[in-house]
Amino acid sequence: VLADPQIVARGMVVEQQHPRFGTLRLPNLPFRFSDCDTTIREVGPDLGQHNAEVAKSLGFKPAEIDAMQTDGVLFSK
After folding, report:
1. Is residue 41 part of a domain?
2. In this structure, which of 21, 27, 52, 61 has its CB flanked by the most CB atoms within 10 Å?
3. Whole-model pTM?
4. Is residue 30 scored above 90 in pLDDT?
5. Beta strands of the chain (E only): which ranges?
């Protein structure tokens, strides 16, 4: 289905680069707006990719974040 010429011509499939999996073919958003680009620009984050940043934004100190990572409470890449 993803290789169907009509699907490709309508821009319903986009290719994105993923750091672990290489080139991925993903379904594009099914709706279009005349004044807004709805193209998917990047893949979702890896598991735990932003955990330290989120913990910091919640008020945890760097030492607390490090301790949570060491204890396996918080997983970060």
Report:
1. no
2. 52
3. 0.55
4. no
5. 13-18, 22-27
